[in-house]
Amino acid sequence: MQKGSGFKQGTLGFLFIILAIVNLTANAEVQTINELELSTIANLDKAALNNDQWQTVLPVLGDEDHYFIATQAGKIYQIHNNQVSSSAFFDLKLALKNPNIVALTAITLDPNFHYRDRDGYHTFYTAHTEASKPSTAKLAPINAEVNSLYDTVLVRWKVDNFRTKPLVRQQYEVMRIAIMEVDEPIKQLSFNPYIEPWHDDFGLLFIALARNETLKNEALYAGSILRIKPEKYGLQKYTVPTNNPFSKTADIQNEIIFIAGQKTEHFDWIKQSAYRLLVQFNQPDSSLLIEAKIGEDWREAIPQEKIKKHLPILDTKHKTLLYQGRDLKKLWGKVLHLQEKENDWQLQALTINSTDDAGNTPKISHKLINYNTNKQSKFSLHQKHNGELLLLEHSQQRLYSIKKPTAVVNNVGKKQDLPSSSNSQSILLILFCFVFILTGTYWYVRSTNTKKQGFFQQQWANFEIDMETKSISLYKRHNKSPEKNLTISSLICSEILLNDEVISTISADTTQAFSNELESLVLAAFGSEHRIKMINDKHRKIQLCLTDDQKQHYMICLYYRVGNIRHTKLKYQQVIDKAIDWQWLLAQHINPTLTTKRKIKVKPIPEKVVSPSENKSVSVKAIEREVFEDNSTEATQDIDLSINSLIDSTHEAPSTTKSSIDATEENTLVADLDKLVMMKKQGYLSETEFNAAKAKVLKHLAND
Known about the structure:
This protein is an alpha+beta fold. Strands 19-20-21-22-1-25-24-23 form an eight-stranded mixed sheet, with no helix packed on it. Strands 2, 3, 4, 5 and 6 form a five-stranded antiparallel sheet that branches.
């Protein structure tokens, strides 16, 4: 205790010194702490736009110094080694031989762009608006008959020799959607940059479509987001993933995965989850940031708990990006948008997990420096594939990267001529920086450990079942004695959560019983998660949420792993077995009529010739559930778990002579009784059934 008290006193004294130094240097630091410097990547004056406007920047995968930059008219230029090409290597109107194309509205590169041996090598996609073609197959309203004036068209292209003399050829038109107005096109094309090539959802194209006020009750025209596999399959130009959520809904197109019911400006991925999106909605008086989940339909209303942030009212709408880079640490995990104040451009940083939704949330403004402020500027915000930021200046035609301000070194010679007091101040400033970094590291490690300990302290760590008292005991982390006992009859619901996603629910509801089919789905979910590599500090968590008749919830964290470090005792397969066995047991108690007979998954055992003495008894071990690796092939066999079938199968064997009990038969008897005791402890046998089975075994022995 004295050591801990002394450490705390020393820490407080150390912090007091730090605060004093900060107070002395605050006036010098306050001017630069919220500044971000622009570093020029390329001067775009060489490209002759001829009344055209830059639209977007595409960093080329696999080459940090190579960019594609597209205009609104559909021309694409190259930027390589900080130089922009004087002429466009791609012209959408010329490539399609259609001068009536209105505008290029979206463009993206295939995630396999730089993989030579994969489909998608040197492939990109464009979306444009053109006059309607009535005879061409297209997506259209399901519940309404309309005469569309325009089509928004998705086209797949391939470029050859793009480093020297690029040659673009059209592969095929992927999709065409009927739209009513020219300002209702495809607004965004994106692939999820955080999904690895070995994942099942890799290479799926997300398409954001604008909202139509007249057809807002139609799912396709309610600000929806679509998801497809943009590869040919037979005669089909694209395929629809089987796990798209609305595949079985008659009045919603299979391609749709999310219906906003609002005017969608932009969407981004939340890095921790491949199935959650951060969507920006534009409203007349403000913009909203919404955390959306694939499969949600918000045509009636937006759930208030989904609103993460109200953005300030701006004269010009700018898209909001979620910073996922590493260079600018003070922007980690924040949403960013540009704001102009008297020709001074600022990058506003907001935290999305704030609870204040009134618009007065404290925000951090970062002033952009090192650009020509004498001329009127117009910026747009973009991102590289690694999450770092790009700024495209449209008026002065510059492409910038954003970095931390560099130290001012042009006054070093003057500082050497100053008195010794100036040198002392410099040493003091260096010492302060060193101490500040050391203190920040210490508090970061301490806060990380505190958060981790708080997570385990808030949730239960394990549970055990007592079939004699029909109760369940809950344990805290590192405790050998239970802190909470619940009767099984008091529980009304049980949920299995994988990475905070509910994958199994048991309750008295007729639709929430348990069955062999549901068990297979749960095992499939666990298997899919197990195939994902634990890299980049990926989190994997398995929880069990119990609810009693008083509506009180008990969250049990059975498995938690970060990267290669597992913070719980039980291994992955052990937790899966325990959770599924519990679901079967609870389902038999609270929903026995709808709970089906369980099938035990075993591996087929090859037949072999055995002697009559060896064939005399068959171990009950054959009915036990066998543990499988996630990558193994499973075979399902129906096994009868009734008491009579167990005893009969145990002692069913051809017998030609009657002899006394030898050592082998005694071992068989002991093994049979042990298995009956084990089945009773696991909840498969009641007290009455156990006594009947034991009596039958002993009676069979007496008859022999």
